[in-house]
């Protein structure tokens, strides 16, 4: 359940493009947590689900399981890439839709299998990658042979945004998890990155060649984090943000190392932490909806009316306005520091799949 990349809500129209007749890439695969879950948690036994009002109040299909009032980052990115519709969740995708991509993201999930399990079941990153193998077999069946399927898969964009829950719903919850006793903050980041690297290598083995990995945002500035830790007058919880910085530093190095190791692939790093606003206004310190004790929205209770002015939707997750801003800067960098070595638009344009 988690997260976020703490974002400055700003004018949302920059770079936003209508869906094109022909997508820039044949498919878009998404791995992650509740920042981008679009319904995978709806039918599993967990408290981390968002298939009830007021979630989805601004989404055409209502409460689909997205942990926000409207669209998520990957919904906007799918439109930027030229897809006519959002990428469907693994739990419901079938038929020709499989060929355009799958969203495997699961609320409360992490890089580690045990992360978030105190809330109930979730689909951890390792299982998301296993689910992708199931998708591959279905794509091969539809394409007719392995070579044609491989050409299709090599040209797709693979988007991975995960890791916040490994801190907020694992490391910083010592009553539920032992990791803070077993690892220092630096050691835990190393442990996470080692596991993350293995998952990326597995995806590479399944044909992934254009891979975007997203760093952890300013999770020490999330309303729920500040409520749990107490701010003592500070704007954010600095030790939690410091943990995110350790993780991001190693994740960025992993991208550099894998670009050397996986010669015919290209990975980019999306600097979500750097896109965050370090001096939140009052509208950045609390969510738009009325939160339950666990930080999610109270069912059926009316949220604020000025949703475009809020950074957070509930006590963990960003509003659609924040998602849009982040998607815009992910697709086409506003600053050189937004992505490395280049942005998602440039990644999609690579001809890797043809070599």
Automatic annotation (TrEMBL):
CDD domains recorded: SGNH_plant_lipase_like
Xref: Pfam families: Lipase_GDSL
Keywords: Hydrolase, Lipid degradation, Lipid metabolism, Secreted, Signal
Keyword Lipid metabolism in record: yes
Protein's GO biological process: lipid catabolic process
SUPFAM superfamilies xrefs: SGNH hydrolase (SSF52266)
Lineage: superkingdom: Eukaryota
GO molecular function terms listed in the Swiss-Prot or TrEMBL record: hydrolase activity, acting on ester bonds
Gene Ontology CC, one term: extracellular region
Annotated compartments: Secreted
Broad class of where this protein is predominantly found: secreted
Classification via InterPro entries: GDSL (IPR001087), GDSL_esterase/lipase (IPR051238), SGNH_hydro_sf (IPR036514), SGNH_plant_lipase-like (IPR035669)
Signal sequence extent: 1-20
Keyword field contains Acetylation: no
Family designation: Belongs to the 'GDSL' lipolytic enzyme family.
Name used for this protein in its record: Uncharacterized protein
Taxonomic lineage: Eukaryota, Viridiplantae, Streptophyta, Embryophyta, Tracheophyta
